[in-house]
Amino acid sequence: MGLLQGKTAIITGASSGIGAGIANELASEGANVVLAARRTEKLNELENEIKEQGSGNVLTVQTDVTSRQDVEELVKQAETTFNHVDIFVNNAGQMLSSQVLSGKVDEWEQMIDVNIKGVLFGINSILPSMLERSSGHIINIASVSGLEVTKVSTVYSATKFAVRAISTGLEKELAKTGVRVTNISPGMVDTSLVSGSSWNNERKKLETKDIAKAVIYAVTQPDYVNVNEITVRPV
Ligand code: NAD
């Protein structure tokens, strides 16, 4: 029996990369998974893949995390299908032109909307029911760019510093409520987010399952243990 049998997890940005990896790993531990992203055909492919492996139940909900209404509807559908949600993974994210000198204001707005507002919408939609049950776990996928800034990462880093600030403050706000918050800061992972960027470096990249394992670690601790921060870098 999997470590997460009977639990339900929502994963945003599940249509590719780290989100798909997390969904696979949670399902292989027996969790019901709710796959949320904009590209339904990609979500349906992942749904079939998970079902073929014979792991937990899967629900797919087309969601744009920049739409508060979409995120509220996502939580509603998940709760209607699985009764309640134990784990909410705020994973959806974008990394676009990040130099202030680039002047690409539209791309900054997009990153702010997805990376910051999307995370806040997710938290706001799931918290009331988690607080009511005095139980639940919010996982925010930040980045090592939320710990350090380079001259090409200014705006993306700003959004990821914000994610870490939200995780840190929320953990304090939620003390003694039974609801846990974990901030995960991945280094370079082999996904489409970095393959199309100039951020490639010579270190071996992590695989999506390396981040998924960090999620499994955080959510399988005893319920009085809150793993607040995990940073995972390639060697
Ligand atoms: P990815 O591009 O493969 O995945 C990003 C996911 O977010 C996709 O499924 C995409 O469709 C989804 N998404 C984007 N905008 C969305 C929106 N408005 N609504 C719903 N979904 C949306 O990249 P990834 O590397 O898997 O990124 C996942 C997370 O990990 C991001 O938050 C990213 O910032 C973070 N991260 C990635 C790396 C890396 O090296 N790949 C490192 C650190 C942190």
Structure summary:
The protein is of the alpha/beta class and 235 residues long. Helices cover 45% and strands 16% of the residues.
Task: Characterise the protein shown here.
By secondary structure, the protein is an alpha/beta fold. It has a single domain, classed as 3-Layer(aba) Sandwich (Rossmann fold), CATH 3.40.50.720. Helix content is 45%, strand content 16%. It is built from 7 helices and 7 strands; from the N terminus they run βαβαβαβαβαβααβ. The protein has helices spanning 17-28, 40-52, 68-82, 105-133, 154-173, 192-195, 208-219; strands spanning 8-12, 32-37, 58-62, 87-90, 136-141, 179-186, 229-232. A 7-stranded parallel sheet has the order 3-2-1-4-5-6-7, with helices on both faces. Helix 5 (154-173) links the parallel strand 5 and strand 6 (179-186). Helix 1 crosses helix 7 (208-219), helix 3 (68-82) runs parallel beside helix 4 and helix 4 packs parallel to helix 5 (154-173). It is globular and about 50 Å long. The two termini are 33 Å apart. The mean pLDDT is 96. The structure holds nicotinamide-adenine-dinucleotide.
